[in-house]
Amino acid sequence: VALKHAILSALSRGVPLNGYALVTVFSNETERLWHASASQVYSELIKMEKAGLIEIASRNELGHTTYVITEVGRREIEHWLTLTDPDHSIRDDSMLRFMALWVVDDTTARHLIQAEQSFQRKRLLRLREVLDEFRTKGEQQDARAWRDRQAVYVLWIVQAEAMIAWLERLPDVFEHPERSVAEIFANSLREPVAAGR
Amino acid sequence: VALKHAILSALSRGVPLNGYALVTVFSNETERLWHASASQVYSELIKMEKAGLIEIASRNELGHTTYVITEVGRREIEHWLTLTDPDHSIRDDSMLRFMALWVVDDTTARHLIQAEQSFQRKRLLRLREVLDEFRTKGEQQDARAWRDRQAVYVLWIVQAEAMIAWLERLPDVFEHPERSVAEIFANSLREPVAAGR
DNA sequence: CTTGTCATGTAAAAGGTTACATGATTAG
DNA sequence: CTAATCATGTAACCTTTTACATGACAAG
Fold first, then answer.
1. Chain B: nearest CA to A42, how far in angstroms?
2. What number of H helices and E strands is found in chain A?
3. With contact defined as beta carbons under 8 Å apart, do B153 and B126 qualify?
4. For residue A31, what is the enclosing H or E element?
5. What is the dihedral of CA B147, B149, B155, B161, to 10 degrees?
6. In the prediction, which pLDDT does B53 show?
7. Residue B68 CA, nucleotide C28 C1', distance (Å)
C-alpha cells in the first residue's frame, strides 16, 4: 500500500530519477526503509504517472525515462504524513530466525550469529560512508532534505552498533546456561537510559 | 513465504496453541517479528496441517482447535535456519515517514515526532513488563527457548531506548539549521562503540 | 441485554515475486 | 569480445489484505 509513498518520498527531493535508480534504492539492504522488486517499481511508476502523482521529465528513443513529482504528488505526501497513522507492523525474517535459534545446537548457532555479525559490520561501514557523503552533498542541494536523511542514518548507525554488541554476547545465552540473561547483557541494559522527559 | 516459519517458531516451544492465540502474536506491535492478519493465519494453519508440518492437538464441537508442531515441522525449521539465507529486506512505514518529514512545517513535524515518541515509550514499558514475566516463566518450561526470547527482548529494549533518545533530538534538526546534524546527535554518535573484534 | 473479547472461517481484490524477454553501454 | 551493469517491461503465480459472516461466552 505504500510503495507509492516510498517513490514519492524519493522524488520529493527534486532530482529527476529513472526507474532503474529507484529500483536500486528499493533493493538496497543498507537503507532498510522499503523493499520492492524491479518489476514492481516499473509498473508502479506507470500507474502513478497515469494517476498524475508524478510526470515524465525526459524520455529518450531507448525508452529511458526520468520522472519528477507533481504538485498532486506533493499534496499526496503531505496527506499521507499528516492524515494517516503510521503502520508499525513489521516482517523481519532475520529477527524471526534469532527467536528460533535455540532449536539448533551451539556450534550451528555460533555460525549463524557470526554470519549476521558480518552482515551488520559491513552494513555499518556502508552507513558511515554514506553519511559522510551526505555531509558534503547536502551543502549544495535542499539542506532540509539532506539534514533529515543524515538524521535517519544516525539512528541506523546507532542501532547497527547496538545489534553488533548484542550479537557479540548472544552465544553466551546458549553456552552459559548457568548465567542469567540479564547478567550476560548487563552493560547493554543498564536501566532507564534517560527515558525520562 | 515465511508466515509458515513464524508459526512453526511459535509452536516449537512445545505449548499447543489455537489459531486465535497465533493471531494475537502476529498482530502484536510490541513484538516486531512478523505481522499477519487473522484470515491469513487461519488459512495458513489449514494448509500447514495438510502438509504435515503441524497437527491438531485438540478440537471441540465449536471448532476451537489447538495445534502442535510435528517432527516434519521441526525438520523444516532447522532446514530454514541452516540452509536458507536470512532475508534482510524490510518495509518500515514508520521510518519511511521520518525520511520524508522535512516536507512538512516544523510544528507539524514536532507533532508527528511526539506521536512516535509516545508510541515507543508505551512499547518500551510493555517490553520491560514482558521481559520480567519471562524471567519467572522460563524457570519451569524449556529454559533454552525462554532464554532466547529474553535475549531478543533485550535487543528490542536497547533499540527502543535508542529510538526514543533519537526522537528527542530530532526536532533540532529542523529547528536549528545553524547546528550540524553531527553536533545535534553528538552524544549518540560517540564513534566506534566497540565495533572491533 | 448489550458490548467486548474469544474464536473461526470464506471470497474478492490488491500487492508483490519470479521467470522471462530484450537491448545498450561500459570495463576488462 | 565477453561479462557486468544499466535499463525497461510483461505474464503467471503466490501472498496478503479487506470485507463479510457467524457464533459462544463473560462482564457490566
1. 18
2. 8, 3
3. no
4. none
5. -110
6. 97
7. 57
Residue A135 has pLDDT above 90, yes or no: no
A35 CB-side CA count, 13 A: 13
Per-residue pLDDT, averaged over A12-37, amounts to 95
What pLDDT was estimated at residue B101? 98
Closest C1' nucleotide to A34's CA: C16
Q: How far is B47 from B4, CA to CA, in rounded Å?
A: 9
Confidence of residue B134 (pLDDT cuts 50, 70, 90): confident
Q: Name every chain B residue with its beta carbon within 8 A of the beta carbon of A161.
A: 193, 195
Nearest-angstrom CA–CA distance, A150 and A128: 10
C1'-nearest nucleotide to the CA of A87: D17
Characterize the bridge pairing of strands B54-59 and B17-18: unpaired
**Contact flag B32-A90 (C-beta cutoff 8 Å):** yes
- Listing DSSP states for B44-63 in one string gives HHHHHHHTTSEEEEEE-TT-
A145 CB neighbour count, 10 Å cutoff: 20
Tens digits of per-residue pLDDT, A61-74? 999 999 999 999 99
The whole-model pTM stands at 0.93
Interchain contact, B151 vs A97, CB within 8 Å: no
Of the candidates A2, A10, A50, the one whose C-alpha atom is nearest the C-alpha of residue A148 is A10
User: Is 60 exceeded by the pLDDT of residue A193?
Assistant: no
Place of cell 535508542: B162
- Grid cell, residue A148, equals 533529515
Roughly what angle, to the nearest 10 degrees, separates helices B143-175 and A143-175? Answer: 160
The model's confidence at residue A1, banded by pLDDT at 50, 70 and 90, is low
Q: Is the pLDDT of residue A18 over 80?
A: yes
Question: Can you tell me which residue has its alpha carbon closest to the C1' of nucleotide C6?
Answer: B20
